[in-house]
């Protein structure tokens, strides 16, 4: 996700505009690139994706260092423009990917103009598309120990959620619920547009071992994107 971006309105065309249960979603095109806007807030675009790929790569690196592993089961949430999903499929260590997305238009766009940005990932037999709310899934009892990595990018970060209903995922109860979905030794990776010392402390309380990776952004004077890794 990208929180801030300067876009020249003269070069932007609306490709699709949909009202969902969670508000308005717009897909815009600017030159050869696309942007997703949620309730007037910039959500994601196709220009860079370095930190969205790192979200997955850092999790897989954590699981495969020092001992190599294969057949890893990875959950990616949400779909966005598909950079994180594409990164998961690009790793030979990954055997299966579940991608959880709440918004039907985002899935439709990924089957259309956004498909090249994930490498047409939804056509890959290793991918299971789960069209549902990730937060509701997290608090349910099923899927205990089912994943080696949970790679989550559904908000601008733990302190700036896209919808109020997402907030509970980042509290202690949400983190405990996520931990229960992980296999022994599994890793939780969380994307954020900014550092969050309070969230980092909560992760340490629930998981014990926490690392933070920063990725510089291209926006002038923008703060680095952050990937939290906990196990
Ligand atoms: C910033 S985008 C993800 C970007 C993605 N990492 C990529 O590489 O393009 C956030 C996505 O999460 C989805 N989302 C937001 N809240 C969600 C929820 N509670 N459950 C599932 N998906 C959610 C949004 O619809 C959006 O597609």
Quick recap of the structure?
The protein is of the alpha/beta class and 231 residues long.
Number of strands: 11
Instruction: Tell me the number of structural domains.
Output: 2
Q: Supply the CATH architecture of the largest domain.
A: 3-Layer(aba) Sandwich
Tally of separate helices: 6
Order of helices and strands: EEEEHEHEHEHEHEHEE
Query: Quick one: CATH class of the largest domain?
Result: Alpha Beta
Shape: globular
CATH topology description of the largest domain: Rossmann fold
Q: What's the CATH H-level superfamily name of the largest domain?
A: Vaccinia Virus protein VP39
Radius of gyration: 17 Å
The biggest sheet amounts to: 7 strands, mixed
Q: Give the percentage of residues in beta strands.
A: 25-35%
Strand order of the largest sheet: 7-6-5-8-9-11-10
Ligands and ions found: S-adenosylmethionine
**Model regions low in confidence, pLDDT < 50 over at least 5 residues:** none
Counting helices, strands and paired strands, the structural category is alpha/beta
User: What is the terminal-to-terminal distance?
Assistant: 23 Å
Helix content: 10-25%
Arithmetic mean of pLDDT:
94
Protein name: Spermidine synthase
Keywords: Polyamine biosynthesis
InterPro entries: SAM-dependent_MTases_sf
Organism: Yinghuangia aomiensis
């Amino acid at each position: 996700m990208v929180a801030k971006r300067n876009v020249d309105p003269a070069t932007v065309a609306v490709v699709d505009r949909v009202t969902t249960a969670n508000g308005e979603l717009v897909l815009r095109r600017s030159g050869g690139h696309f942007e997703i806007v949620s309730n007037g807030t910039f959500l994601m675009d196709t220009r860079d994706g370095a930190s969205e790929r790192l979200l997955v790569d850092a999790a897989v690196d954590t699981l495969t260092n020092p001992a190599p592993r294969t057949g890893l089961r990875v959950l990616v949430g949400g779909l966005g423009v598909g950079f994180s999903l594409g990164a998961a499929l690009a790793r030979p260590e990954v055997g299966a990917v579940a991608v959880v997305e709440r918004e039907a238009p985002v899935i439709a766009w990924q089957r259309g103009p956004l498909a090249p940005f994930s490498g047409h990932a939804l056509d890959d037999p290793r991918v299971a598309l789960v069209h549902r709310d990730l937060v509701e899934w997290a608090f349910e009892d099923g899927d205990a120990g089912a994943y080696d990595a949970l790679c989550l990018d559904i908000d601008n970060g733990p302190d700036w959620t896209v919808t109020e209903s997402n907030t509970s995922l980042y509290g202690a109860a949400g983190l405990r619920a996520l931990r229960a979905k992980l296999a022994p030794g599994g890793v939780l990776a969380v994307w954020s547009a900014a550092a969050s010392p309070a969230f980092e402390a909560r992760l340490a309380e629930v998981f014990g071992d926490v690392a933070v990776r920063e990725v510089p952004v291209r926006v002038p004077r923008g703060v680095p994107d952050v990937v939290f890794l906990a196990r």
